[in-house]
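$ fold --in a.seq
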Amino acid sequence: MERKEVKENKKERVKGKKKKKKRKKKKKKKKEEEKKKKKKKKKKKGKDKGKEEEEKKEKERSKGEEEEKSKGKEEEEEEEEEEEEEEEEEEEEGGGEEEEEEEEEEERKRKDKEEEEKKEKERSKGEEEEKIYLLDNVVKPIFISFQLAKLATINQHVCLVL
């Protein structure tokens, strides 16, 4: 009889513990849901404030852009006048300078192309060296170990070689 009573008491204690765990889980879930709700509310408030701030920034930008445009137009006009004056002076001096500039630009382009070709060759050499290294130091040893494993199994021995 005592054993039965002990077993029943134990079952009741276990049930009580399980119920307690369930209650704790429910409380945690409620707290987490409340936190999520609070975060959502904060985000909404933050979004509203963010929208207002963005609108203010856009207004300031548009004002600044308009001012820059008006200043930019004046500056462009001045630059155009200066360029025209410079062109007139160059025409008076002659066209020899323009030809020299063109030749210099062509030389620069040729040099750039040669440098790019050299770099590509160096890269390809480096890639080939890497492939050779991988073949010698990685692939071949693995292949050899597999061959040895086959030989071992042929002789009806269980062997792991790696």
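$ fold --in b.seq
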Amino acid sequence: MILARAAEERSDRWAGWPLFVVGLAVFTVLAVVRVVVLVRAGETAGSVVLVVSGAAGVLVGAVLVWMVLRVGLLRRRVAAARPGAVVVPGCVVAVMVAVARDRGVPRRPWALQGGQPVALAVTSADLEVWAGNASSPRWTIPLAAVGAVANLSGRYGPRKVQAVGVWDQDGALVAALVPAYRSTKVLVGGSWDQRERARHDLRTAIWKGGSGAFPRSGGSPRRETRAA
């Protein structure tokens, strides 16, 4: 079971990377070729503009790579700190800032608009929320206190996206994220299959760890269609 999960994590880690890297490499090569052509033709001004544009494009690509790597690194760090736990990686939605404030936790390293890496770990007793480079979770929720795992709408940067939320027995939101088992999914704001997998993993792990305290059907305050 553990070996199968490790193999699956390795597969998720690299899924989507070949296309992304090839696209960035092709863009860079084409930009260099175009600059050479312009310089040989004596169009210095055009070559300068292209160099600046190309540099900006490469910088944006580097930032995106950095974002993707952070999600994977956090997932592996949490998995190492909590052997045997179910770890759901992703990025926070904006509402998590309010959730952190309500729990008396500083919002950093999360920005107001969301988008930063987060990982939910389900141990035998608790649901843990991890972020940044901390050596311990930002907060924990006893599994017996969890009331529902369902989809919700949230703000992710400038976009409104579908995320996965966890509520307690009193109906208060305690965690929310855009799941990203495949790290490159953070670039597109997640996907339906990633949300379904996260909901299944969380519900199953919480049900087992909570000794049946969590409703098997997983009550849903908000529902989502596959087309969302």
